[in-house]
Amino acid sequence: MQFPPATPVPPSPPLRWGIAGPGEIADTFASAVLKWGTQKITAVGSRSAQRAANFATRHGIEQHWGSYRELCESSVVDAVYISNHIDGHLELAQVALDAGKHALVEKPLHYSAQAARSVLAHAKQHQLLMTEAMWTRYLPQSSVLRTIIQSADFGTPEHLVATFAVDNRHIDRLWRPGTGSITYDMGIYPIALAYEVFGAPSRIDALGSVTEGGIDEAATVKLSYPSGATATLVISGIATHPCTATISGQHQTITLEHPFFVPTTMQLATKGLYADTMSWADDTSIKGHEGLYYQAEWFGHYVAQGMTESPVHTHEEILSNLEAAEEIVRLVGGSVRPGHRTAARPTSL
């Protein structure tokens, strides 16, 4: 047994990034990109001019506007990182694309795969790169994992168990009536990992619970695939369990340690009760959500190559994962329904 090397980030000309929606995740993204990467952040936009100005001051950004549209139409911006509320993702992405800007949109891209499909098609039609910010795809461990599960030594993947269960009752946005959803916010990580291993499921079964307001708060999910493979996902915003993921192949297993969706260690093992194991660890000093920087670097490379979608997180996968999330919410009785949701606040551009 041995671990293959991680795929290095290829050098590419830096893009000039605009930040749309200067909230907590945008703060983390900007800090990581400016600390570790070669990309440039040249502007920030918000519905609040003061919030944009404060964000610009914190990160040393020259341009700031109290308008998303002005940001997208700015001549100092090549690509827009969209991190406003999920309700406004697609509308803002459309504005960015119409202004000729590439778009990296926070996950989930939207609640509705149907709505997302038309905007992704619009990006491809205009030869612009648009993808969902599934940042785990670009971590070094992910390239190592992909190589292993495709190897003859590992054998065909047969089963996956992935857990994202953390008591997040203190995070208000997760429980907001009409827009809150643990499946879409937290569950999208194990859903995406299962797709990376097996592709789109042919059947989805789920049991779970919802709040009095109808927000899905927990789900235990079984995904079935045409090959006979299965995946078991445990998703909860109430319970707390180790957030690990294990993939069992014909000959070996591999486990991503807690939390599996950030830079972490992996254990490769033979099958059996008393298995031989070996460990892999990221040898960089990049920890936690500083790993967001990788997706910006790869995004810059894809733009330089003229790509319109990420080869490791394709449009097809984005849509499949949204369809899976929608079905899980439906099965557990949640109230987030693409096309049938309660009225949400409009996005002021």
Order of helices and strands: EHEHEHEHEHEHEHEEEEEEEHH
- Total strands: the figure is 14
Structural class call reads alpha/beta
CATH architecture of the largest domain: 2-Layer Sandwich
What is the share of helical residues? Answer: 25-40%
Indicate the overall shape: globular
What is the CATH top level name of the largest domain? Alpha Beta
CATH topology-level name of the largest domain = Dihydrodipicolinate Reductase, domain 2
How many structural units, i.e. domains?
Answer: 2
% residues in beta strands: 15-25%
Sketch the major β-sheet: 8 strands, mixed
Spans of at least 5 consecutive residues whose pLDDT stays below 50 are: 337-347
Strand line-up in the sheet with most strands: 8-9-10-7-11-12-13-14
Q: Termini, distance in Å? A: 54 Å
Computed CA radius of gyration, to the nearest angstrom: 20 Å
CATH superfamily of the largest domain: Dihydrodipicolinate Reductase, domain 2
Mean pLDDT: 94
User: Counting H and I runs of at least 4 residues, what is the number of helices?
Assistant: 9
